[in-house]
Amino acid sequence: MSIWNPWRGCHKKSDGCLNCYIHRADARKGINTDEICKLDRFNLPIEKDHKGNYKVKSGQLVYLCFNSDFLIEEADEWRGDAWQIMRERSDLTFLFLTKRIERFMVGLPEDFENWNEHIVVCCTIENQEKADERLKIFRTLPIKHKMITIQPMLEKIDLTPYLDENIECVVVGGESGKDVRPLDYEWVLDVRRQCVDSNVSFEFRQLGSTFIKDHKQYQIKRQDLCKQAKKADIDFRSTLKK
Ligand code: SF4
């Protein structure tokens, strides 16, 4: 596993961004998250050692843009080069999340459809409004590997119109930190049921720091968020081979 951040910074875009961990972490360090900057290690996946071998070893999963949004407007001038780097490293798998799926086609290489087998795009939603807005667009895009991320989940969501055979997995989780919005386990189970009915893989990634189960509210410690989700043992693996 590897992380590649070709640029940093982001603007809050929708309700799900309210307690964005990047903004919170930057604020502690006195960094202005709204300033979008290209980073020194822009070429990380194609950097080579003194023997001429790639430093990022073949076969790895590369998390892309985890302190920005890959599709943010200010990066339009750099994204073409980032796509070319991904095209060159077809021996890696690249994965990014975005709340700006409506911008996916901006600057996309014309022949993208021919070489995106190693790229996974996660469309992020948080409520029904954003599900309807973003997933309608997501389903039309020429992406081979599509996932839906609902983190933080802010309300009960009906995903059924969007759970077709092109969606490989739905990931659900709550919000972490102080004074965050609650995640109701009923919403999680409801999305799981939709996934099972549509034979789409489902993963419960993490509880929220404020978590509701059977109408009771709990405060969950950060170190237990993922552990407790795994303990719930409700992940579902689709029988479709993807
Ligand atoms: S889009 Fe993502 S990175 Fe950007 S502000 Fe929202 S939550 Fe943070």
Keywords:
seven-stranded parallel sheet; three-stranded mixed sheet; alpha/beta; binds iron/sulfur cluster
Strand residue percentage: 15-25%
Q: Tell me, briefly, the overall form.
A: globular
Strand arrangement, major sheet: 1-4-5-6-7-8-10
Bound molecules: iron/sulfur cluster
How do the SSEs run, as a string of H and E? Answer: EEHEEHEEHEEEHEEEH
Kindly state the mean pLDDT as a whole number? 96
- End-to-end separation in angstroms reads 20 Å
Number of helices: 5
Can you describe what's shown?
A hairpin with a 2-residue loop joins strand 11 and strand 12 (216-219). The two termini are 20 Å apart. The chain has helices at residues 21-29, 76-88, 128-138, 185-198, 225-232, and strands spanning 2-4, 7-8, 37-38, 61-64, 93-98, 119-125, 145-150, 167-173, 183-184, 201-206, 210-213, 216-219. The protein is α/β, with parallel strands linked by helices. It has a seven-stranded parallel sheet with strand order 1-4-5-6-7-8-10. Helices cover 23% and strands 22% of the residues. Iron/sulfur cluster (SF4) is lined by residues 10, 12-13, 17, 20, 22, 69, 99.
